[in-house]
Amino acid sequence: MSNRKYPRKGYKSLLILSIIWLLGAVGDRIWLALDRSIPAWDQADYLTGTLTYWQALQDPKWWDGEWWQNFWMLSSKIPPLTYIVTAIVQNIFGTGPDQATLVMLLFSAILLGSVYGLGAVLISEAVGLWAAALCQIMPALYQLRLDFLLDYPLAAVVTFSFFCLTVWKLKVNSQQSTVNSQKSPHLPISPSPHPLLLAAAFGLSLGLALMVKQTALLFLLTPIVWIGFGALRQRHWGQLVQLIGALCLSVLVLSPWYRANWLLILTSGKRATLDSATAEGDAPLNTLQAWTYYWHQLPNQVSLPLLIVSIFALLLYWGSSLEKDAVTIRRGDTETEKFTASPRHRVPMSFSSSLKWLAIFLVGAYFLSSLNPNKDTRYTLPYLPVLSVFLAYGLTRFRSLWGQRLRWGTFGLAVLLMLFNLFPAGGSVGSWMTQVLSPNAQHYPYMKEELPHRQVIAQIIQTEPYLRSTVGVLPSTPKINQHNLNYYGALANFQVYGRQVGIRKKFVKQDGRSLSWFLTKTGKQGSVPNAQAVMVKTVEEGGNFQLSKSWELPGSGTIKLYHQQIPPIEVKPVSQQAQAKVTLLQVTVPEKAPPGVPVPVTYEWNGAWEELQNGIVLLTWRHSSDDKMSWIHDRGIGMGNLHAGANKPQGTLQVIERMAMLPPADIAPGNYNLEAIYLNRVSGESYSIPVPKVTLQIYPQATATIAPELDLITQLQVLAATLPHGTKALEQLFEEIGRINQYDPTQDYLEQARLSLEYRLQHVSQNRDWAYALALANVLQKKANGAIAALEQVTQLDSENPYAWAYLAFVQIYNWQPAAAEKSLQPSLVKNPNLVEIQALNGIAALMQGKVMKAWRIFKMINIEHR
């Protein structure tokens, strides 16, 4: 009979756990069904990330290494596991905010199952069930599972990983010694799988946790180190080997993404911590406030009834245990010789060790989280599920009838507070209760009219149905910002992108000349710099833009959509019959122009949609009597922005491009004629394009004609020409790259530049400036192999320049080729051994190869020379 009871009890616990999850799921979906809000900054950004991976998974190439490389680089700063899982969910249920949040039900199941498992293996199944129930009613947890942020998924996978680590630890300990288990009146549940399988499960879970967010390590590092040092101290070599093996397995899981993006992760770390902390006014680490911040936030995260009653119950229980021990000792009972009145034996030994294990996790997580200068309550969410086990242990210490009533009364009050915080149903009484007992947790659904983001996107697409558009979003409020406009543009077949521009005064003029669409707002502008007001004035009063449409916001002003009066790219159908090849109908330029100054030029192309969309044109303006004198004006047709959503146009279309080109400052005077080659970026097909008669005279004394902003590829080539000057040019170069990347959010201009320059270097001539530009395009696309090949060409064409070899070595280091980098640096060290940058690269290359002493000598020499 007894053998049948335990499975039946286990099934009952799983049934109760399922009901706990189901009740939470129903409540969440009701809230989301009522909510008509627009996702704010981070939520919209993360939702866009899910769509990016959803799009990539529509046509996967599982056996293509380059596809996998590009797949991992779709999210360069944030680990993509949540994006990938949500993309799969949206592939089943459709795309949209409500569909995406279905993934939270999966993470809730993982979290509740892990919390239940922790409570069960460490203390009892009852504690596990209560801990799971508490996770459903803690304010911090129920708030964040309704928002699409990474913190709730992170809490789920961190808890799961800690559960796997705990089960493995218990299994290993039970195998190492049976003496302690015989002495203990309470035996933790002994898992049946082999320790190696449990270690592998922990390794996989740790890798997955770090694929959700890097901060998972803040919560799991302390228990991992604790076990590692314990095994080392007690010489449990088998346990240590299993732990190291688990860590190696986690590295295998996370290495594809981290290897592809490690440099950006390092460079963005400072911005995400120090810079953000400074901008938000967080207390510095040398103040007490920085270390007590999360302690003061704990009542808001848990709610006062749960926190106070659970701690009170624990103190009462431990006090009564001490009193019983003292009485028993005075009586001289021999049965109590197993226990003492020392603090660590205030509860039975197994309970004490379980609580100690939970305390190790919680204290370590709190300390490392506080060590992060950037403070936010949601950053500590992953330690709350483990805290719930501790609190559930306290609640279950009530044994008497009044104690059980107090437990259920506390739980019922917490449920009531949750309902009043999530739904406007409590009236003034409910509002008072939540302010006193669960402050700062109100999270009502937005039930007014939906904001007009979809209408803004529809208006842009209706105006330019054949183009991919970028709209400069000038306000930055939770309801109107670049991220949520960008998200709704992504929902519309990725045809519209939102970007925040006009935030730097030095770039306002270029921003206004580089985008065709701008969105402004009356009233409060949100978190914007002073330059934004200048940008708004440029758009609304500068004369280059006209109002396309405006929408009233509920109680918060008006948003206005502006479109450039003479757009740089126009696309229109001209015939129902598709022509076989692309033709150049007309080219319009001034009669004369001075060298080194942008020249306005208009191109008119005709062709079938696919030929135009996939077409890259290689345009050469060549001197009429000297073939060596020329400049190029290559790019994708329509700047690569041809996009028709889900409906591919039929027949022949015309593309009109109004842009500017840049004759070199040292170009010889004379007449220049145009030559054109068509290159298909998909098939690789190329052919010559007949050019209408057009001549541009370069004349130094000519008056410059007002021209639009240079196209992005020309700007890239201008910046690449500064690379031979070394590190002095890099700061300005990357500042400008950051600016122009805003204008082409897909960075397709880099692909256009790469393909056109590869063609020219292979079929036209070995030009140093082209090779530098090709290398830069590959670097910015994070195509390491392509960049290495281009830089090897650079070192041949600019062999006397030490920076050429340094650039090559840098990319080889990025690509984890330190030996090749060390070899590449030798010419630079010979030509200019005093360059700090080259010495530093040499030291890094040596360190990556394990040459610690050599690296130490190099860095010591650098330090001595530059004191």
Account of the protein in words:
With 867 residues, the protein is of the alpha+beta class. It has five domains: 13-178 and 188-258, no CATH class; 298-423, no CATH class; 453-563, D-Maltodextrin-Binding Protein, domain 2 (3-Layer(aba) Sandwich), CATH 3.40.190; 569-708, Immunoglobulin-like (Sandwich), CATH 2.60.40.770; 713-865, Serine Threonine Protein Phosphatase 5, Tetratricopeptide repeat (Alpha Horseshoe), CATH 1.25.40.10. The protein is built from 33 helices and 16 strands. The strands form three sheets. Strands 8, 10, 11, 12, 14, 15 and 16 form a seven-stranded mixed sheet that branches. A hairpin with a 3-residue loop joins strand 4 and strand 5 (557-564). Helix 6 (103-122) runs parallel beside helix 9 (151-176), helix 16 packs antiparallel against helix 17 and helix 18 crosses helix 19 (427-437). The longest helix is centred in the N-terminal third of the chain and has 44 residues, at 237-280.
